[in-house]
Amino acid sequence: MRSFLALTLLAISTLIGCQRDSDSQPEPVQYIVPAEVEPFIQVFRDEAQKRNNAVSTTNLIITFGTTQSGDVCGQCLLQSGKTPRITLNNDAFCWQQASQYERECLIFHELGHCLLKREHKINRFPHGAFVSLMNPDNVDVYATCRYPIGGDECDKRPRRDYYIDELFDPSTPTPAWGK
Ligand SMILES: [Zn+2]
């Protein structure tokens, strides 16, 4: 009797095991991005292409919602065999009152996690500016004139170019304004 019971339990657990396996089948390639976010993905593609980076954006799900963990305004969920998922917090602080640059920084940061497989980088230049868009605390590194360092402090373009260079290539040298 005892051994039969053990066998039955074994059979049940095997069945459950199989079911789990079928649940973890790889997801098909899918692309679901809100229309409001799509222009930023197009810019990301263009910037990747300019730098000869072959990163694919074809398998990606982005939704607006509440972030459970990860960064305050965004979250990247990477699971083996599943489509990378980005959740963006669309509250006033993170999205509705954010500038186009701030939105771009947020999306590029999450794409950095989800597509470029980058981790956070907390290093700063001597003047205090973050070295990378992949810093966990400030997604407006080039959106505002918050770091008065060198030259025209409101000249955003050189900084934007640098930060996007660094996003695609972490070994990008320190720019003149960062020294
Ligand atoms: Zn992050």
Hetero compounds: zinc ion
Count of DSSP strands? 4
Are there runs of 5+ residues with pLDDT below 50, and where? 1-22, 146-151
- How do the strands of the widest beta sheet line up side by side? 1-2-4-3
What is the overall pLDDT average?
A: 82
- Tally of helical runs: 5
Main sheet makeup: 4 strands, mixed
| Helix-strand makeup class | alpha/beta
Evaluate the radius of gyration: 21 Å
The H-and-E topology, N to C, reads as HEHEEEHHH
Q: Work out the helicity level.
A: 25-40%
Q: Could you give the distance between the termini?
A: 78 Å
Gross morphology = globular
Strand content: 5-15%
Q: Topology, please?
A:
Layout: H1 2-23, E1 31-32, H2 38-50, E2 60-64, E3 74-77, E4 85-88, H3 92-96, H4 100-114, H5 156-168
Parallel strand pairs: 1-2, 2-4
Antiparallel strand pairs: 3-4
Bound molecules: zinc ion.
